[in-house]
Amino acid sequence: MAELLLEARGVTKHYRVGPLLGHRRTVHAVEDVTLAVHRGRTLGIVGESGSGKSTLASMLVGDERPTEGEIELLGRPLHRMSGRDLRRARRDVQLVRQDPYTSLNPRMTVERIVREPLEIHPDLVPRARRRDRVRELLGLVGLSDDHLDRYPHQLSGGQRQRVGIARALAVRPQLLVCDEPVSALDVSVQAQVINLLENLQRELGIGVVFIAHDLSVVHHIAHRIAVMYLGRVVEEGDPDEIHHRPRHPYTQALLTAVPDLDHRTRGAETAGPTVLSGEIPSPLDPPSGCVFRTRCWQAADRCAEVVPPLETQGADGHLTACHFPLVPADRDERRPSGASG
Amino acid sequence: MSALVEVRGLRVEFRTARGWAPAVDGIDLTVHEGRTTAILGESGSGKSATARAMLGVLPPRQSRVSAGAIRVDGRDVLEMSEAQRRTVRGPEVAMVFQDALSALNPVLPVGYQVAEGARLHLGLRRRAARERAVELLDLVGIPDARRRARDYPHQFSGGMRQRVMIATALAAEPRVLVADEPTTALDVTIQAQILDLLRRLQRERQMGLLLITHDMGVVAQMADDITVMYAGRVVEQGTADDVLGRTEHPYTCALLRSVPRVEEKGRPLEVIPGSPPDISALPGGCLFRPRCPHAEHHCTTAPQLVEISPGHLSRCHQAQVQAEVQAEVQAGEVAGG
């Protein structure tokens, strides 16, 4: 196994809100999440809005402190750091955001944007070499010297995301946390950025946490996938395992909901129990027991009483948090095929 | 299969720093009863401008329709006065937008907003219209519709708001529903619910559905006919089987290959280099040429949209050559036979 870069153990994040109408309430954003990221590997995190994936990202890069649990970055306790230690630790883990348009300063040129981290961490590169380093970084992400003097609004969405990645790489991080890095981009440009991230990982040997709502994108890029629902990891494992033999009902529902690119299945209403009705419950008032039970078609009494632990089901390293995990039949074999309309 | 809306030679221009630029350049499109026509395109392809022109809701001053015809029931919407258009918008053609929060009025209860369409276009009295609104909210799957009709848009989740907007669009019983990225802002499990709803409504009412999206999965699952747009022009057009099964245009091919597929894990994704052109500075010749893997010297002249097989059109020189060869072969056969 490659070197362990980051480990989160039992990480929980609660926000206190209110007092509203007299009482304070608690948002259960992330609940008891355990995961690990290794050098040269990509951990994909999939979840819909409200799953807590972005809150988790903020904790993994040290922007938010967990309410409970521990995060170890290169063996040091990130969750307890502050001040200078935290600033130093942030060199090792960098965040790439979804929308590079709002995360890049519109009044700065590309050169200043990419150079800024080098000014904040002046010991990294001597002043005289910084311009060269910026050029080198732009080259790394597929931009040229022509882009140095441009402003963000003069760039396309894909180019802005490249600038965001170059800036994140400036401090030579060991780990990149990407929060929905391609979802704001046009389809034809998404592939460019995904390939870029894969190439960078190969060249630099960095670890990557890739957070997205798009299962096919995550399946493509990740070595391991964690599926989140309402603050919890409900299933985790090898991408092909997850995709072909999902054990958690939510994962199966998520997979079924993605429109199939094969047009011959057109018009077939996504039928059966796996079409989820209703919506994700509020994290202010999550269901007791299993958080998915309110939308699950096989929920039983036990699901309301006991939180199902995330434990191995079937194949090694395939973890599922469900009292009644699905029987592994190859999912693709059960899809409608041929010209059934 | 009757045509409900016919768009012919539509040209829409946007005001830019460099003057009027073509956002939509000569598109032909037909929406049939009981069928789904999809416009597939990336941002800036002109797909939304086409839809907005059909309803006469393009932003004034920043945009103008400079040519073409949009016939609804045989009458050209572009020739109509605003008052006449209002009789078309709603009962003939209604629209669902991507962002329901900004499309609905924040200070009116949703029931009132749904009832408004029924009052204006079907002439229902206040009480009857209110009942109709509750029925419609129920139809689109809002639980406890009678009570929720009194709630305001901000009290609904994204998916429920999208349902409310669909209910307002259905109020005047339109024959054509135009849905502009109706599920783009939604999570996939909610998207599946909304797509099922649109399918069911269409089947029950034999509505024509014009679906505008950038999502190839949605197109593959919903469309009977597909129009692929790039930089304001139609690059490929045909039935879903034609466009997705016998893809002709290099842009459509590249788009389809750039989507990650499960069975191709481990291989780098095929990439379309660069990004779509700025409409105020379009390249000469074929607009896709700068990004096309098959571009050749003759691509510096603009290709025509040619028919490759009945109803299947592609705007590419390669297709043009093929079509000419085919025509010659056929002519030869006729002469020889």
Give the helix/strand layout.
The complex is a heterodimer of chains A (341) and B (337).
Chain A: E1 4-20, E2 23-38, E3 42-46, H1 53-60, E4 68-73, E5 76-77, H2 83-89, E6 93-96, H3 100-103, H4 110-120, H5 130-140, H6 157-169, E7 175-179, H7 187-204, E8 207-212, H8 215-221, E9 224-229, E10 232-237, H9 239-244, H10 249-257, H11 301-305, E11 311-312, E12 319-320
Parallel strand pairs in A: 3-8, 3-9, 6-7, 7-8
Antiparallel strand pairs in A: 1-2, 1-4, 4-5, 9-10, 10-12, 11-12
Helix pairs in contact in A: 4-5, 4-6, 5-6, 6-7
Chain B: E1 3-16, E2 19-32, E3 36-40, H1 47-55, E4 63-72, E5 75-76, H2 82-88, E6 93-96, H3 100-103, H4 110-122, H5 126-139, H6 145-148, H7 158-170, E7 176-180, H8 188-205, E8 208-213, H9 216-222, E9 225-230, E10 233-239, H10 240-245, H11 250-257, E11 305-309, E12 312-315, H12 317-336
Parallel strand pairs in B: 3-8, 3-9, 6-7, 7-8
Antiparallel strand pairs in B: 1-2, 1-4, 4-5, 9-10, 10-12, 11-12
Structural overview:
The complex is a heterodimer of chains A (341) and B (337). Chain A is α/β, with parallel strands linked by helices and 341 residues long. Chain A contains eleven helices and twelve strands. Chain A folds into two domains: 250 residues, Rossmann fold (3-Layer(aba) Sandwich); 66 residues, no CATH class. An eight-stranded mixed sheet of chain A has the order 6-7-8-3-9-10-12-11, sandwiched between helices. In chain A, strands 2-1-4-5 form a four-stranded antiparallel sheet. In chain A, a hairpin with a 2-residue loop joins strand 9 and strand 10. The longest helix of chain A is centred in the middle third of the chain and has 18 residues. Chain B has 337 residues and is α/β, with parallel strands linked by helices. Helix content of chain B is 36%, strand content 24%. Chain B contains twelve helices and twelve strands. An eight-stranded mixed sheet of chain B has the order 6-7-8-3-9-10-12-11, sandwiched between helices. In chain B, strands 2-1-4-5 form a four-stranded antiparallel sheet, with helices on one face. The chains are: A alpha/beta (341), B alpha/beta (337).
